[in-house]
């Protein structure tokens, strides 16, 4: 067993002696609303995230959402298809990682949290790439990118769903924009089972509290509305905030940018 471990470590060291740009590719794409990317898979691992807009993925018969602050890690040979949901053009990033380096990443699909530094890093890599030469600085940026992806917080889903007979209709209400002005307590009062049981059920089925799940649903709605030009004041009112500043604080807490910064991307 010890000899096998040493052999694997040696092979990994040999791989990393090769230029890193041979093992990592960073590309960007632009999608119109409802544009579909046909089902496909890759021998490499894929990390996909949006600089703006939202994509919906179908991966192994499950639906995943990818808003600007969360991306999707797909291991090698993971079949997937996607569709752009935003009314505006969606600017999307695909980072492909050679299968020989994927041992440091999850062996199943994960939702990764995107920090501002990683977004800036990708912008810099794309600018360097346009210059057409693999410099030492460019290679350093790629290595930092890999390290950032390894360290990014990972989740099963951004907005998980449930088919539970009592939870499913409640989630439909919690994600309904016409009901965002109502408090969570008001919606729970009309539920078919006790609040205590629903809260316990949400943790079992979603691994999220109902309040956190609803906040994420609000964020997805807010992103699409901001990109369509809706004013912060009107959107804050729709989401149940009396003051725009409270909504801006909420939005920044989840996306690490203000509505104005998202609109200007």
From TrEMBL:
Segments traversing the membrane: none
MF GO annotations: DNA-binding transcription factor activity; sequence-specific DNA binding
Transcription in keyword set: yes
Pfam families: HTH_18 (PF12833)
Protein name: AraC-type DNA-binding protein
Annotated HTH araC/xylS-type domain residues: 164-265
Source domain of life: Bacteria
Stored InterPro entries: Homeodomain-like_sf (IPR009057), HTH_AraC (IPR018060), HTH_AraC-typ_CS (IPR018062), RmlC_Cupin_sf (IPR011051)
Keywords, sorted A to Z: DNA-binding, Transcription, Transcription regulation
């Amino acid at each position: 067993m010890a000899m096998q471990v040493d052999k694997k470590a040696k092979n990994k060291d040999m791989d990393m002696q090769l230029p890193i740009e041979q093992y990592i590719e960073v590309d960007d794409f632009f999608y119109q609303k409802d544009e579909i990317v046909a089902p496909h898979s890759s021998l490499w691992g894929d990390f996909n995230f949006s600089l703006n807009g939202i994509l919906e993925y179908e991966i192994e018969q499950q639906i995943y959402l990818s808003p600007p602050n969360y991306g999707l890690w797909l291991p090698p040979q993971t079949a997937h298809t996607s569709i752009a949901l935003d009314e505006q053009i969606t600017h999307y990033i695909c980072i492909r990682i050679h299968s020989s380096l994927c041992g440091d990443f999850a062996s199943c699909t994960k939702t990764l949290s995107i920090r501002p530094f990683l977004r800036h890093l990708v912008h810099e890599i794309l600018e360097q790439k346009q210059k057409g030469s693999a410099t030492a600085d460019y290679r350093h940026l790629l290595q930092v990118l890999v390290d950032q992806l390894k360290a990014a917080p990972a989740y099963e889903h951004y907005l998980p769903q449930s088919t539970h007979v009592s939870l499913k209709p409640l989630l439909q209400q919690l994600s309904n924009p016409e009901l965002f002005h109502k408090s969570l307590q008001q919606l729970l009062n009309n539920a078919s089972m006790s609040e205590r049981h629903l809260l316990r059920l949400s943790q079992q089925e979603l691994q999220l509290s109902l309040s956190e799940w609803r906040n994420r649903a609000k964020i997805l709605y807010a992103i699409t509305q901001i990109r369509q030009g809706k004013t912060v004041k009107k959107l804050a009112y729709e989401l149940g905030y009396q003051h725009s500043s409270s909504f801006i604080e909420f939005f920044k807490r989840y996306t690490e940018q203000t509505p104005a910064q998202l609109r200007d991307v």
